[in-house]
Target: Alpha-1,4 glucan phosphorylase
Amino acid sequence: MWNEKLTAPGNAEDATIAEAVHRTAAGAPDQAPAQPFARATPVTAPSSAAVAELREAILAKLAYAIGKTPQTARERDWFAATALALRDRIVDACRAGAGQVPNKRVYYLSLEFLIGRLLSDAMNNLGLVETTRAALRDLGIELDSVEGAEPDAALGNGGLGRLAACFIESMASLSIPAIGYGIRYDHGLFRQSLEDGWQKEAPETWLAEGNPWEFVRPEATYTIGFGGHVTMQSVSEGVIRRQWHPAETVRAVAHDVPVVGWRGRHVNTLRLWKAEAETPVELARFNGGDHVGAVAARARVEAISRVLYPSDSSEAGQELRLRQEYFFTSASLQDLVRRHVGERGDLRSLPDHAAIQLNDTHPAIAVPELMRLLIDDHGLTWEDAWHVTTNTLGYTNHTLLPEALETWSVDLMERVLPRHMQIIYLINWMHLEEQGRHGRANAAQLASVSLIEEANGKRVRMGHLAFLGARRVNGVSALHTDLMRSTVFKDLHALDTDKIVNKTNGITFRRWLHNCNPELTRLAVETVGEGVLDRPELLTGLADHAADAGFQARYRAMRRARKEALAKVVAERTGIAVDPESLFDVQIKRIHEYKRQLLNVIETVALYQAIKAEPNRDWTPRVKIFGGKAAPSYVQAKLIIKLACDVARVANDDPDVAGRLKVVFLPNYSVSLAEAIIPAADLSEQISTAGMEASGTGNMKLALNGALTIGTLDGANIEIRDHVGPDNIFIFGLDAAGVQARMDEPDYAKAAIAASPRLAAALDLIGSGGFSPDDPNRFRPIVDSLVHEDRYLLTADFDDYWRAQRAVDAAWNDPAAWWRKAILNTARMAWFSSDRSMREYAEEIWRVRVA
Ligand SMILES: *Cc1c(COP(=O)(O)O)cnc(C)c1O
Model:
């Protein structure tokens, strides 16, 4: 039975986890794997036999894989032993699912996977949370501390990387056969500390003590070339073959992390590539005494997977970045091409059996790379290769901000990827020719759809390249997709109006509800039944209880417990005492001007001034909580962090506002910290300039957990409003069209400041050193940038934001109404599950069946 399901021979090198497990299982007795996940709910009491079995498994791992005794084991050792024991269960679940070659696989290429910790995911999806807790408790160990010993896998910057992590978990949960491809960075996103309010970056070291989740697959190694030249050779009458001779080569070595889906039904693979030198050390040089020079070449190539670029929504114009992008794209395509050839033989059937999704333009080089592999290495004609490429690739756009649209200079491309540049030129030539044939040859039109931008030196537009090479191109919220059609991709869209589709982002409820908020999950299960764990739409049933005083009390108790836990974290990390009775007002996300943390800080200053002016009014006690990292080179964003910290210091020390306003900047925002903050949030700040946030996913996590949103009509906020209802969200400010119109008005910022005494007073205090007496001019650049340019329309939206915040105050003072709104948010957010997103991609983009 196992044997007939074996994949084609010759395919052994690129075994993914399912394939490898299956192969080992071929010789094993044909027995069904243990069913460790009979009932996966946070309330199930585990059987004592299951607990004993897992306890012994953990002890065995501790002894034989870690080499420790319970007496000498540290928390980190217990974590590794527990992870290894659970990994065995995942392998068992995999055995259950391994077998047939799936008809079609999804390949999700992403330069970033912002995963966080995996232990709670694995336990929860295997239905083993309580079993593991009991097994460890038998050994005198607390599960919470073991979970705390796992470092975050922070292989991403923010929303884009977190989306990829949610998607691979959802694909596994929906049993969509998929492989995620990315880079195994030695150092993920930097660790942020605050020194006197200034951001300091330190390298992050998640791999310092190994990674118990991964399987190294040295047999799945590919050679990646850079530089060199291209030769032409006539192979037969009229057929010329081009061959690339790279000057430099690097090995890409696969490291597989199993991704187990809900109830352990399906396991997928996240395959991360590590760069290794062909020659670890130049022995002759080493023996000649040049110990450093002997490893210099190695250091250069291995730099490719050394660190994650800490750039978020802005171009990282570095050669190393291009090398990273090509490195992981080429390795992934070589891997999937080899798998296809092994399983099916003919590459012309690739579109029937593979769907390759490009998460943003970082892997857009896949277009010419797939063409090169098909034509140069596998002998397809240009026409066949183009057909295969454009029916296999999909491209997800994540931003329309001009500074974030990736382009590479033609000079650099010719130097690093000469063969790809030839292919890009040919694609572009054929594309522009076709425009001519359709009578669209006017110079402006051609310039706008060309792959080469010529405004300031020739540059390749990676978004355009991905657009042409893909069968479907998607935006990530309804508004963003509309803006794609009407702005950046307007002329390309006109050529093929079916190509752009919308796929609104989602979040995995397993992590962002079940794992991070077990109290709310239990409340939901007890109220609407256990089916809610499988079918989030059952959350709607909570709406029937939204006005019920008893239910509200339980919901409030959940929030109260979470706020007390967060208050502890705040005290530990910042020394600031916050009162869980206060409204917790949260803005957590990358620090970026378009996200407008500055608007929130200025409103905080205005509130501080208002409280000082009238201390005896019935102010709603608030704690403003900020979290987020700034790109290390982003000077203005770092200054905004400093401002938030300086405002915090002054406000928190001022007895006039004590008990009414506290300000906290929690350092080192991460997935794990998000999991602690989100269930404790009362108010979710989603205040980007309309038209600039493609979707947002933080907005979804917070609303699902019952925080009310204060936000602009931007990204997915619009769809959140449509779902939760306009009475249960605080919307303010200009919409995207209003923003465009306002930007065309001359001196709009000066006019807005002149019209708002409150805004003017807050800016005065900031600009004159009210929060920086040690350096009164410190924040002049911030105030000046608002007066002179205000690219993000803070001044335009300030008064309406203030109004909306006071509406929040009023709502908080009517608890029965507030908690009704909160419960309705939880009840109506089901649509934002990433399972829904993945079903839509599967159906309309990938054309794969979902069970
Ligand atoms: C969800 C998430 C993000 C994205 O947040 P946005 O508010 O959508 O920008 C960024 N970082 C982490 C750690 C997250 O969990």
About this structure: DSSP finds 34 helices and 24 strands in the chain. Residues 562-832 form a domain with the Rossmann fold fold (CATH 3.40.50.2000).
